[in-house]
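User: My instructor asked us to take a sequence, write out its structure as tokens, and then describe one feature of it. I'm not sure where to start. Here is the sequence I was given:
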Amino acid sequence: MTKIHLLQLILARLENDFALARQAAQTAHEAATHEESLAENKYDTRGLEAAYLAAGQSRRVEEIRQALSLYQNLQLRPFDAERGIQLTALVRLLDAQGGEQTLFLGPDAAGLRVQAGDRQVMVITPRSPLGQRLLGRGEGEEIELALAGVRRCYEVLEVD
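Assistant: Let's start with the prediction itself. The structure tokens for your sequence are:
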């Protein structure tokens, strides 16, 4: 798996999510402006609820659009051992229980998962607690962090 292939998978996923979100926003907007959404009395909140849903869907469309734009303009960088893990690093971690996970340090779309060959890759950002701890680290280093009061330990197995 190369980072170029991974970037293509992330872009395809974001483009698909963007299309679905736009369709959902359009549907929500139509529901909010439909004549059946007009209040029949002061307790009828169908129109208000539909308007809130439409606004939320519109915000989601904008979030995905921004992430898509960032990834379309993303410059992939090779790993530099002197600088350590930076944005666009592909990192394989081992946890204390022996489980492995593969992460891509991206500019946005945290939590997005793509299947790249036999590996599932999750996007994290430098703003996340794990992303912050990974910055500047290298292969063989250990990372500790506490999430929701639980201490977790990871070893950096591989960085690309």
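For the description part of your assignment, you could build on this observation: The chain has a mean pLDDT of 91. Try explaining in your own words what that tells you about the chain.
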